[in-house]
Write a structure and sequence with these properties.
By secondary structure, this protein is mainly alpha-helical. The chain is built from five helices and no strands. The chain has helices at residues 2-10, 13-48, 59-92, 97-113, 115-128. The longest helix has 36 residues, at 13-48. The relative contact order is 0.09.
Length: 129
């Protein structure tokens, strides 16, 4: 009980409100960044779509562009929000170094275990491109 009392005495409401304000600002900035990334990827999709000589959009070109931009959009959003979570955790006081190290080791293990799958995905991506 003494440990809990000591912990609660060390917390000030001012630091709690400052931390909450920082977290809100960080989440807002990452939300704006994801919105900008979506707009940029939509613009990229429009750029990738090739029109034929009659001015009509070629069906295969539109399908390829939609697939590529969809993959890129998901990848960018996952990376952005993973970074947002890590930055918020760091602001709250959680050490993110061990989390990043564990993610690196896990990624290495998955990479070795799924070499053929990763190779097929990368090959398919470049075939579509």
């Amino acid at each position: 009980m003494e440990l809990l009392d000591h912990f609660l005495e060390a917390i000030t409401w001012e630091s709690v409100f400052i931390t909450i304000a920082k977290v809100v600002v960080i989440l807002l900035l990452f939300w704006v960044a994801s919105f900008i990334a979506k707009l940029a990827l939509n613009r990229l999709e429009q750029h990738l779509v090739v029109t034929d000589q009659g001015g009509q959009v070629a069906g295969e070109s539109a399908k390829r562009a939609e697939t590529l931009v969809g993959l890129l959009r998901q990848g960018v959003l996952i990376v952005l929000w993973a970074l947002a979570v890590l930055v918020v955790l760091q602001q709250v006081g959680v050490h993110v170094g061990p989390i990043l190290a564990s993610a690196g080791v896990l990624g290495l293990a998955v990479g070795f275990g799924a070499q053929n799958l990763v190779r097929d995905i990368i090959s398919g991506f470049f075939i579509i491109l």
